[in-house]
TrEMBL record:
The lineage of its organism: Bacteria, Pseudomonadati, Verrucomicrobiota, Verrucomicrobiia, Verrucomicrobiales. This is Thif-type nad/fad binding fold. CDD domains: ThiF_MoeB_HesA_family. Residues 16-251 form the THIF-type NAD/FAD binding fold domain. Pfam families: ThiF. One of its GO terms (molecular function) is sulfotransferase activity. Belongs to the HesA/MoeB/ThiF family.
């Protein structure tokens, strides 16, 4: 958590009035959001809605990691960016959009690839949020989350569907490698560009990542720890499956506390 504060300002009480009246939230929950920090990897289809809704909800600090430039094909689903952003770094347009949404938001930018060596970059953040689009980055995210003992909120989308979960062995749940024991070799599986994605699907799953993060921070509700929610938005079908921890997992079967 960031430096604690004892109360909300008058402006904050007005701004977040629709949240603080919610059961399980209150001013205490809003203060927890204000004191919390989240590191988001990817400012694309998932990262855009996740970052925007966390910023709007009152999160204290957002770390953003991405090294791509905005392309015209991104605009169908990546709402952090605009036509004027095409050809510029995603982090630039992301920071401008989020600052316009909330001027008091602390934004830290990391224009670099995310790897298993990014531990010190993430150290000090409360939650790691996976908005990536490939197995290698997700594996790196898992390694860093395990090393630091923080939750990893993760989602994946393709075509008209997706899934969301929270990996947190330190809270009794599985890690990413419990669910995906073998990481596929790059080039052996289709990419999002090949499969396609409906923008509203990415928006839905990114918002769900934001909600899982909010639940973890505030204590409201029950996060998807040890469970994964699959959504088929073309049919409206939602399926919740149990994700057990694998006692023989190559990543988390030993003590992974930082």
């Amino acid at each position: 958590m960031m430096h604690p504060t004892s109360r909300l300002t008058d402006d904050e009480q007005t701004r977040y009035a629709r949240q603080t009246i919610l059961p399980g939230m209150g001013e205490e929950g809003q203060l927890r959001l204000k004191q919390a920090s989240v590191f988001i990897v990817g400012c694309g289809g998932l990262g855009s809605p996740a970052a925007m809704y966390l910023a709007a909800a009152g999160i204290g600090r957002l770390g953003l990691c991405d090294f791509d430039n905005v392309e015209a094909s991104n605009l169908q689903r990546q709402l952090l960016h605009s036509e004027q952003s095409v050809g510029t770094p995603k982090l630039e347009s992301a920071a401008a959009r989020l600052s316009g949404l909330r001027s008091d938001l602390d934004i830290v930018l990391h224009e670099q690839p995310f790897t298993a060596d990014s531990i010190e970059t993430v150290r000090g953040y409360d939650i790691l949020l996976d908005a990536s689009d490939n197995y290698e980055t997700r594996d790196a995210l898992n390694r860093v989350a395990l090393a630091l003992g923080i939750p990893l909120v993760s989602a994946a989308v393709s075509q008209y569907g997706g899934q969301v979960t929270v990996y947190a062995p330190h809270l009794g749940g599985p890690c990413y490698r419990c669910a995906v024991p073998e990481i596929p070799v790059p080039g052996t599986y289709p990419t999002p560009a090949q499969l396609g994605i409906m923008g509203a699907v990415a928006g839905t799953l990114g918002c769900m990542e934001a909600m899982e993060t909010i639940k973890l921070i505030t204590g409201a509700g029950q996060p998807l720890i040890g469970a994964m929610l699959h959504l088929d938005l073309l049919t409206g079908k939602a399926t919740r499956i149990t994700l057990p921890r694998d006692p023989s997992c190559p990543a988390c079967h030993t003590d992974t506390s930082a």
